Amino acid sequence: QGQLVESGGGLVQPGGSLRLSCAASGLTFERHAMGWFRQAPGKERMLVGSVDCTGGSTNYADAVKGRATISRNNVKKTVYLQMNSRETENAGDYSCAATTGRVWSNWGQGTQVTVSS
């Protein structure tokens, strides 16, 4: 069973940017597409975006298009999320997940992002 560990959360100022990392172990990373999810307070978890196995293709939710970038390093077995903050919209618990098909089969514990001045 693979393990995913997120890092990089914390306090972000409005108008600033955040960069999250998700390190994988115990799974064949390069065979998994990776996704970043966000659950804001009082809201359902949403898929922020995803990246394919090679890093050559990404998809983003409409709400973050133009502000988010997902990338991966298959040598380091790590996937990244960089996002420009816009007031409190980006606040929430961010999790990464892995899939080899239609089901997100591996999940990280999540990292909390707070947007505040």
How far from one another are the termini? 40 Å
Q: Could you say which structural class the secondary elements and strand pairing correspond to? A: mainly beta
The largest β sheet comes out as: 7 strands, mixed
Average pLDDT score: 93
Give Rg in angstroms. 13 Å
Q: Give the strand tally.
A: 11
Query: Which residues form runs of ≥5 with pLDDT under 50?
Result: none
Strand percentage: over 45%
Number of helices: 0
Overall geometry? globular
Helix content: under 10%
Order of H and E elements:
EEEEEEEEEEE
Question: Any overview of this molecule?
Answer:
This protein has 117 residues and is mainly β. The protein has strands spanning 3-7, 10-12, 17-25, 33-39, 46-51, 58-60, 68-73, 78-84, 92-99, 106-107, 111-115. Strands 2, 4, 5, 6, 9, 10 and 11 form a 7-stranded mixed sheet that branches. Strands 1-3-8-7 form a 4-stranded antiparallel sheet, with no helix packed on it. The termini are far apart.
Which terms summarize this structure?
117 residues; 11 strands
Give a short overview:
This protein has strands at 3-7, 10-12, 17-25, 33-39, 46-51, 58-60, 68-73, 78-84, 92-99, 106-107, 111-115.
Show the helix and strand layout.
Layout lengths: L2 E5 L2 E3 L4 E9 L7 E7 L6 E6 L6 E3 L7 E6 L4 E7 L7 E8 L6 E2 L3 E5 L2
Parallel strand pairs: 2-11
Antiparallel strand pairs: 1-3, 3-8, 4-5, 4-9, 5-6, 7-8, 9-10, 9-11
